[in-house]
Amino acid sequence: SSGINAEYGVHPYADKSLSREARGRKVRGGWSTETGKKRWRRKRTVFSTADIEILESMYRDHKFLNPTLKAEILSRVTVPSNVVVMWFQNRRAKDRAAGIAI
Prior knowledge:
Layout: E1 4-5, E2 9-10, E3 30-32, E4 39-41, H1 49-61, H2 67-76, H3 81-97
Antiparallel strand pairs: 1-2, 3-4
């Protein structure tokens, strides 16, 4: 797209040479116009303290999910299945970035 929108004019982040972060990508949810099109972005998941404690305790013992563990976690937390899977992926990435063996 050319970065021109009839309703908004020239989009301030139309310069495609910049990274998405540099163009001001919205993270928290709401209307985004980074591509010159108005579209809704998913809101960030907010975990309760209890959910985090459960996830962290399970992660200490099991770095990877299996169907049984996943079912047990889902019976104890308030977030959906795909969020639990993503949380484990992100938690392993956090350990790798910190140089902790998985």
